[in-house]
């Protein structure tokens, strides 16, 4: 193994069964392994795309339910959080980057709000619900985030505002305790 003395990282050989198998002669080359992985992703993409549609529908229903009354419904938010987690884990890797961004944002918001124990920001939920509807429309489906700079930047800013709101509320609670 050649090492670059100026590199900022170190390669560490893993001495376990998998590491030994990976280094064994006659194994798959890295390029072959990547080609097989890409082929497998293409093979399962239709099923994963269907799963993403189902989870988006579930997320949309949960977000709509969360905002049905005057106050945000916590149980519907829990369902939205679960659907967001599922989408966050797969959407971007199969060509749905906007859905992945929305799901990641919602996870971050729900976690920050839950940690600070404040009310869910209704306007933030509404905004992400609208963004999800856009992401699922024909016009936006499959678009890269670089093609939608205003939308993606705006969604990220909303997350930062929600996190800031949660942090301020958490700090205020800490000072009164």
Q: Could you explain the architecture of this structure?
A:
The protein has 177 residues and is an all-alpha fold. It has one domain: Four Helix Bundle (Hemerythrin (Met), subunit A), CATH 1.20.120. It is 70% helix and 0% strand. The radius of gyration is 21 Å and the shape is globular. The model has no long low-confidence stretch (mean pLDDT 84).
Give short descriptive properties of this protein.
mainly alpha; 177 residues; Four Helix Bundle (Hemerythrin (Met), subunit A)
Rounded radius of gyration (Å): 21 Å
- Which secondary-structure class do the elements indicate? mainly alpha
Poorly predicted segments: none
The average pLDDT score comes to 84
**Elements, N to C (H/E):** HHHHHH
**Number of helices, where a helix is a run of at least 4 consecutive DSSP H or I residues:** 6
Topology (SSEs and partners):
Layout: H1 17-23, H2 30-66, H3 74-90, H4 97-116, H5 122-136, H6 149-176
Quick description:
The protein is an all-alpha fold and 177 residues long. It has helices spanning 17-23, 30-66, 74-90, 97-116, 122-136, 149-176. It has one domain (45-176): Four Helix Bundle (Hemerythrin (Met), subunit A), CATH 1.20.120.
């Amino acid at each position: 193994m050649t090492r670059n003395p100026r590199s900022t990282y170190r390669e560490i050989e893993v001495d376990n069964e998998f590491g030994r198998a990976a280094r064994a002669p006659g194994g798959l080359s890295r390029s072959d392994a990547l080609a097989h992985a890409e082929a497998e992703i293409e093979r399962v993409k239709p099923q994963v795309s269907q799963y993403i549609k189902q989870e988006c529908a579930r997320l949309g229903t949960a977000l709509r339910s969360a905002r049905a009354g005057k106050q945000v419904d916590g149980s519907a938010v829990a369902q939205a959080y679960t659907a967001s987690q599922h989408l966050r884990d797969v959407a971007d890797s199969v060509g749905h980057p906007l859905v992945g961004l929305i799901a990641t944002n919602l996870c971050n918001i729900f976690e920050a709000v839950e940690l600070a124990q404040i009310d869910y920001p209704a306007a933030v939920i509404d905004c992400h619900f609208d963004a999800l509807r856009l992401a699922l429309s024909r016009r936006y489906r499959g678009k890269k985030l670089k093609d939608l700079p205003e939308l993606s930047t705006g969604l990220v800013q909303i997350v930062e505002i929600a996190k800031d709101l949660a942090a301020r509320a958490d700090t205020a609670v800490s000072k009164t305790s």
